[in-house]
């Protein structure tokens, strides 16, 4: 079962990486854009055919020829634009998609210009004896070319709406990465918590922290110096544990902003809980040291004086190690870094 789960996780990871890779996203958007343009133009030619009964069939054919010629030239130019841009392998597909509408307009201008030249050349050839030259033939050819402005403008307008597709294709990798990181974080916490179980239920350190990542860092520090660490995630748990185990606790690692617990009327921060400790022990009579770890030391107020040391997150293990060595709680490990 475990082997199957691991294989499934690898499959999900590979699939997410494939979907979010630059090559896959480029290929997907290139194909999607061209199929979309082809469908719009083909449907316009098929379902929006010029059919005025008062206009002779010859003029209908010139109109249709102008449309088809413009469509073919535009699709050829559009294919070249997509191939050139997407084959450049730029990582930002969003930036590419924002450029395409301007290039579509340029391709349409080129297509109309070529159609006009073709129509004018045909009528010029008719004037020298190759057919019957008529201004209306050229006019209907030109009108047919201009009639493609509407479907091409739709392509221009809707192209940027493909941008969310690029983002959506990256979500599986990002989501899988976040999930995997979360699982790894929990696994690391459980492993280090198991290693920090105290002998016969006795612990050297009480860690009061409601963030798993921060707790894992502190517990790894304790494990490095062979200090058994009890982790609790609320003030109420810490209060109960300290009252029952103060004879064995050598050190309290205390976060300032932490959950209170289920008891009402209790302290709301680590600082306030620390303020209550002197009611049982004076600072110089405490059988343990108190180290407050917080991201905002300025918010500890006068409680900072009650702590033996204040560390600002992210804290450096060597600073805590130096303090504990001075207090005689740990010894330097030769050949190892904290």
Automatic annotation (TrEMBL):
This is Response regulatory domain-containing protein. Keywords: Membrane, Phosphoprotein, Transmembrane, Transmembrane helix. The modification 4-aspartylphosphate is found at residue 255. Residues 204-328 form the Response regulatory domain. It comes from Candidatus Wallbacteria bacterium HGW-Wallbacteria-1. The lineage of its organism: Bacteria, Candidatus Walliibacteriota. The chain crosses the membrane at residues 31-51, 63-86, 98-120, 140-163. Gene3D superfamilies: 3.40.50.2300. GO terms for biological process: phosphorelay signal transduction system.
């Amino acid at each position: 079962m475990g082997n199957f789960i691991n294989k499934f996780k690898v499959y999900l990871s590979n699939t997410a990486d494939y979907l979010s890779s630059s090559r896959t996203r480029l290929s997907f958007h290139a194909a999607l854009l061209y199929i979309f343009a082809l469908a719009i133009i083909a449907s316009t030619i098929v379902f929006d055919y010029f059919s005025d009964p008062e206009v002779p069939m010859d003029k209908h054919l010139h109109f249709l020829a102008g449309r088809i010629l413009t469509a073919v030239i535009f699709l050829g130019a559009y294919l070249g634009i997509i191939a050139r841009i997407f084959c450049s392998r730029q990582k930002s597909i969003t930036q590419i998609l924002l450029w395409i509408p301007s290039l579509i307009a340029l391709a349409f201008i080129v297509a109309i210009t070529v159609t006009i030249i073709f129509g004018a050349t045909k009528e010029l050839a008719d004037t020298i004896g190759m057919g019957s030259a008529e201004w209306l033939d050229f006019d209907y050819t030109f009108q047919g070319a201009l009639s493609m402005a509407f479907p091409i403008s739709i392509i221009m307008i809707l192209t940027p709406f493909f941008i969310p597709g690029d983002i959506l294709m990256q979500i599986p990798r990002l989501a899988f990465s976040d999930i995997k990181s979360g699982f790894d974080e929990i696994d690391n916490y459980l492993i280090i918590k198991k290693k920090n179980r105290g002998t016969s239920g006795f612990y050297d350190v009480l860690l009061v922290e409601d963030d798993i990542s921060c707790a894992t860092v502190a517990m790894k520090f304790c494990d490095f110096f062979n200090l058994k660490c009890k982790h609790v995630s609320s003030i109420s748990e810490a209060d109960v544990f300290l009252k029952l185990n103060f004879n064995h606790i050598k050190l309290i690692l205390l976060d300032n902003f932490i959950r209170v617990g289920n008891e009402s009327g209790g302290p709301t921060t680590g600082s306030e809980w620390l303020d209550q400790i002197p009611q049982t022990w004076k600072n110089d009579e405490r059988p343990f040291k108190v180290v407050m770890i917080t991201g905002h030391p300025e918010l500890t107020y006068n409680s900072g004086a009650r702590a033996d040391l204040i560390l600002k997150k992210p804290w450096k293990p060597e600073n805590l190690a130096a303090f504990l060595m001075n207090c005689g709680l740990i010894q330097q490990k030769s050949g190892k870094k904290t």
